[in-house]
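Take one protein record:
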Amino acid sequence: MTKRLSPQLLIYGYAQGIFPMDEDGQIYWYDPDPRAIIPLDERFHVSSSLQRTIRRQTFEIRFDTAFRETMQACSERDETWISQEFIEIYSQLHAGGLAHSVEAWQDGEMVGGLYGVGLAGLFAGESMWSKARDASKVALVALVERLRAGGFQLLDTQFITPHLATFGAYEIPRAEYKQLLVKALQCSATF
């Protein structure tokens, strides 16, 4: 348990393979076993219906234009681990070029997106939100394309969900995750 977060502490945590969550004002660090990842190779799967949505250009995808708003939208649910303190600290990481958002816009309004932390060749996906069908899914596809182009090695989703499994996300043992993390942290990648 930690009382306060700082950008430096977050960076240290991600480099160790742990991540924080706020529970009732207390910050706890997690290191799940197994750990979920999304493959950045040919195993990443996009359904044919989502491919059609992408081809129709239903959404305009933007990167890093509404980071704080993306985090705020991710926090607006019945149960959340994203406190205002988290929004402040991750926004500092964003200002330093280490936290990023992918936003789906429609008719001038942000209707979905995601955010996470990029550290060397690791991208730790933190949360997604959507108020328009497929908006966050299209944002995730755009994220994977961006990570591939930038030379990222590892897309950490922390936990598996049925939603992420449709993209090919899978679980690996903690020890295997730590090995992949070491390799990812040794490479240079650009968001």
